[in-house]
Amino acid sequence: MRQIRALRIAAVAAGIALMATGCGATGKSTGSDSTGAAGPITGLQIMVPNTPGGGYDTTARAAAKVLDDEKISTNTEVFNLAGAGGTVGLARIVNEKGNGDLTMLMGLGVVGASYTNKSESKLTETTPLAKLIEEPGAIMVSKDSPYKTIDDLVTAWKANPGSIAVGGGSSPGGPDHLLPMQLAGAVGIDATKVNFVSYDGGGDLLPAILGNKLGFAASGAGEYLQQIKSGEIRVLATSGENRLEGVDAPTLKESNIDLVFTNWRGIVAPPGISEDDKKSLIAALEKMHASAGWKEALKTHSWSDAFVTGDEFQTFLTDQDKRVADVLTKLGLA
Predict the structure, then answer these.
(1) CB-based contacts of 260: which residues, under 8 Å, 6+ apart?
(2) d(Cα 260, Cα 63) in Å, to the nearest integer?
(3) How far is it, in rounded angstroms, from Cα 129 to Cα 145?
(4) Is the Cβ–Cβ distance between 237 and 252 less than 8 Å?
């Protein structure tokens, strides 16, 4: 009996020790090292709300790699939950209230899709963690396209807007939709006459560009740098204030088209997570942002650093939500 009692006491003591040194209910920390510094985050998941190969997917996997390489987190899991322009994933993140292990990589496309797909879930319900990057859009064609310059394209487009299919890796209301709509307005085309074809992410859009199945595509160049460098995709113009490094193409403004357009991506958590989880996640992203690995990722993918966190990101999200809702209402899509 004494031996059994001793074993029970030892088991209880071991359990208390594990509770003292291990992680909480959300698995946020592996504990402290001998110096008292907090250990890396464990159990972190980053959901991508569209198909593999697109901008969200590329950004999420780049972030996960840096987080793990820098030992900010361990075994960070990236998974895809595609559908309805990102609103299937949005519904999942909103319904996972209080789950401090789950995050979602998102951006302007999900804001728009929440309106055009009449989603009951909105990004304003989530817990904003950080805006990560910005990137200009690119007007792209296949190497076999008859359009050699942006002027060639605009001339043909203005002559018969509905005859030219415009592809984008987002639903109506997303960046790949808003860019050609605003481009149409800038060159004197009625945006309601634009023949827009929606693809669920850049991974789905790529074969359509390469197969010359579109008049042109509007998307972020960073998703297609390999094909651009190999000559399979021709960039006619980019939409930022300045030329995109590594891409031999003028800006729209250089081409006498008065339009500047920039997309962005960030990361959010479910509603109702604890303050400790929120602080832990933001701190991890701040460490990632400060690392040499993340600076290299920005350079590799031609992304612009646009890092803001917490309340500042929440204010930005609220503003973006209103702006997109206003634009889509004017187009009759919201």
Answers:
(1) 239, 240, 241, 251, 252, 253
(2) 27
(3) 41
(4) yes
Residues 6+ apart with CB under 8 A from 45: 76, 77, 78, 79, 101, 102, 103
Average pLDDT over every residue of 150-155 = 98
State how far Cα 281 lies from the chain centre: 17
- Residue 217 exposure: Cα atoms within 13 Å on the Cβ side: 33
Whole-angstrom distance, CA of residue 90 vs CA of residue 131: 17
Beta-bridge partner residues of 168 = 198, 218
Q: Does the pLDDT of residue 213 top 70, yes or no?
A: yes
Q: Grade residue 28 by pLDDT with cuts at 50, 70 and 90.
A: low
Residue pair 185/158 in contact (Cβ under 8 Å)? The answer is no
Instruction: Name the residue among 169, 117, 138, 112 with its Cα closest to residue 251.
Output: 138
| Residues paired with residue 134 on neighbouring β-strands, in sequence order | 264, 304
Q: How far apart are CA 63 and CA 57, in angstroms?
A: 10
How far from chain centre, in Å, is Cα 91?
Answer: 16
DSSP states of 160-176:
-GGGSEEEESS-TTSHH
pLDDT, the chain, mean = 88
User: Could you report the per-residue pLDDT of 38-63, keeping only the tens digit for each?
Assistant: 689 999 999 999 989 888 999 999 99
Q: Under a CB-based contact definition with an 8 Å cutoff, are residues 324 and 108 in contact?
A: yes
Over residues 13-38, the mean pLDDT reads 40
Amino acid at 325: A
CA distance 85 to 91: 12
Give the DSSP H or E segment for 221: none
Q: For residues 173 and 324, what is the distance between their CA atoms, to the nearest angstrom?
A: 7
Give the model confidence (pLDDT) of 285-297 as tens digits: 999 999 999 999 9
Cα separation, 109 vs 33, in Å, equals 41
Distances (CA, A) of 333 to 75, 82, 246: 41, 21, 36
pLDDT at 29: 52
